[in-house]
Amino acid sequence: MTEFTPLLSLAGGVLIGLSAVFLMLLHGRIAGMTGILAGVVPPLPVDWPWRAAFLAGAALAPFVFIVAGGIVPFAVPVSTLALVVGGLIVGVGVTYGSGCTSGHGVCGIARLSPRSITATIVFMIAAFATVYVVRHVFGA
After folding, report:
1. Which residues cross the membrane (predicted)?
2. What is the DSSP letter of 82?
């Protein structure tokens, strides 16, 4: 069972949207996490500092939230192996899909990109099917 936190979810969505808008405004770049991550893996491009700062902010934000007194209980109901395998599958999908959910879903849809809208629909169908199979076919 998951808890729905509408105010925290809204605040998180607003922050993600603002970060995407400011990245486009200040650097002319799309806030796709895999593209940003690829820019901090050697050989480093000239614009790697903003990429490292963006990733650091994304990684440190939960800790800042906790220090500010916010706590959101969560559980990871799968094994570490399942997380690693899932991450590898997502990495393959990102490669073949020419982008991730943040690049296509947040930024691409906002720019009314047909390719991004199609990619996001495919992501969502795959996610729905995966949840259905895992919960109702395998009974996990």
Report:
1. 48-67, 74-96, 116-134
2. H
**Would you state the pLDDT for residue 78?**
84
The C-alpha atoms of residue 75 and residue 122 are separated, in whole angstroms, by: 27
pTM comes to: 0.74
Which secondary structure element, helix H or strand E, spans residue 52, and what is its range?
A: helix 48-67
pLDDT of residue 140 exceeding 70: no
Question: Alpha-carbon distance 65 to 71, whole Å?
Answer: 8
pLDDT at 2 over 70: no
What are the structure tokens assigned to 62, written together? 């939960």
Helix (H) or strand (E) holding 94: helix 80-96
Predicted confidence (pLDDT) at residue 65 exceeds the cutoff of 90: no
DSSP state of 140: -
DSSP 99-127: S-HIIIIIIIHHTT-HHHHHHHHHHHHHH
